Amino acid sequence: MYIVDMHLDKNFCKTKIVATIGPTSWDKKTLQDMINGGMDVARINASFADFDELQKVSKSIRELSPRVGIMLDTMGHKIRVTGFKKERKLEEGNKIYVVPDKAENNSLDPNYIAITYPTLHKDISRNAEILLDDGLLILRVMDIRGEEVLCEVVQGGILKPKKTVNIPNTHLNFPSLSEKDKLDIKFAVDNNFDFISASFIRDIHDVAAIRELMGKTTTRLIAKIEDREGVDNFDQILPLVDGIMVARGDMGVELPLESVPVIQKQMIYKCRSVGKPVIVATQMLESMRESVRPTRAEVSDVANAIMDGCDALMLSAETSTGEYPVEAVETMNRIALNVEDILTPQRVKGYTQVSIETDELCNCLFDLTNSLYLKGIVVISQTGRTSRSLARHRLKIPIFEIGDDIGRIRQNSLVRGVKSYFVQTLPDDRDEAVKKGVECIYSYGELDLNDKIAIISGSSIKNRSNNGILEIINVKDVIGS
């Protein structure tokens, strides 16, 4: 028996859409419209949501759709200005003292700015830059006097309360996990969230600390790469996590803006090479916070991320606090459909977490899709790894995965080109499982009787260490057998 899911009947893009849920989108009607518009994963930002809100949104998503993934995004070690309630004007050339918020200096004094990082004076050096409000204001360190860091305002402007602080090219001695992150991660694991996207992953030690806290769980860990250390250590981080988010917001402050597009392309290709999903995030349709239409540049940005080969695109403020959350999802889906329609499959080299034999089988199938007219590829899988090996080549035809674990099917909601179908009881017999899977896909109108398909499944020979069969067959021969 399989469960009918109207979500599968829609004309959705192969690229997956992650949408952030917030005040303008967490009512059930809006959530349903976003799902109908193409949302594959609902992201909840723990920086702005308490446990009651996390529970409310996750419960609503589960009630509306069993296949939409739920992602908790940790706050990470975000430094902010503090200690004042009214905006301040910083003029170029002025001298400003930056101090920890626990310092005895009067933070209301216009010559002082307090920040939520207690050991800046120990970690920073002269001539270093301190960026405020996502880099809109720039200070340069002139001297360090005890806990007071004397700075000159290089680029002035209006500083509002609680704005962000970034200190590029300086190693900051944060613990691997804040107390808030520990509580949020434990909540996500205990409540069976599908993904945790961990902010500001710098190195393998950060990953190890989160893995230890997560314990034995099916929740997948997505590393957000957003500073120089994360970029420099990317090759060591990638094998230890389940996916990557190219978090361009802080990355564009911590690193030169002009380097971000190149880093994005490099990370995407490396993720594809090992078959791990990669999300591109931040300001993709930023103008849709207030406008029902995106700018031409934003449309090009989304299209280029798809052409780079990303698995998923993420909407942030556009759907959490913006005025047009549903329209933003629908717009992203339309852009992706149009771009994907003209793309050709792109083979990548490298090996994934499946066996070498399975990776090579998928490579052969890549060649077959170019020489045979196949309507789709059916994967009978218990782990999802074969689908990820196939999907990294960004095939033109859909990958239909059949499984009996709804949680793992939700985790496929981050893998480009994979359409997952839940079969409640999947037979142990290989031939029966194939028949049941193809019947399920056929029932949704995805296949016709005369369509030719490829099937990858486990062998019926038991006790094999490398277990896989590739078969090319007509749909009518499977259903009629």
Descriptors for this entry?
481 residues, alpha/beta, TIM Barrel, M1 Pyruvate Kinase, Domain 3, Pyruvate Kinase, Chain: A, domain 1, eight-stranded parallel β-barrel, seven-stranded mixed β-barrel, elongated, disordered N terminus
Structure description:
An eight-stranded parallel β-barrel has the order 1-2-3-13-14-15-16-17, surrounded by seven helices. 34% of the residues lie in helices and 23% in strands. The chain starts with 15 loop residues before the first strand and ends with a helix. Strand 2 (41-45), helix 2 and strand 3 form a beta-alpha-beta unit. The chain has helices spanning 28-37, 51-64, 120-123, 179-190, 204-214, 228-232, 234-237, 248-254, 260-273, 296-308, 317-320, 325-340, 356-371, 385-391, 406-411, 430-443, 475-479; strands at residues 16-20, 41-45, 69-73, 79-82, 88-90, 95-100, 112-115, 129-132, 137-145, 148-155, 157-159, 164-166, 195-198, 220-225, 243-247, 278-281, 312-315, 376-380, 399-403, 418-422, 452-457, 469-474. The chain has three domains: 6-76 and 176-340, Phosphoenolpyruvate-binding domains (TIM Barrel, Alpha-Beta Barrel), CATH 3.20.20; 79-166, PK beta-barrel domain-like (M1 Pyruvate Kinase, Domain 3, Beta Barrel); 356-479, Pyruvate kinase, C-terminal domain (Pyruvate Kinase, Chain: A, domain 1, 3-Layer(aba) Sandwich), CATH 3.40.1380. It is of the alpha/beta class.
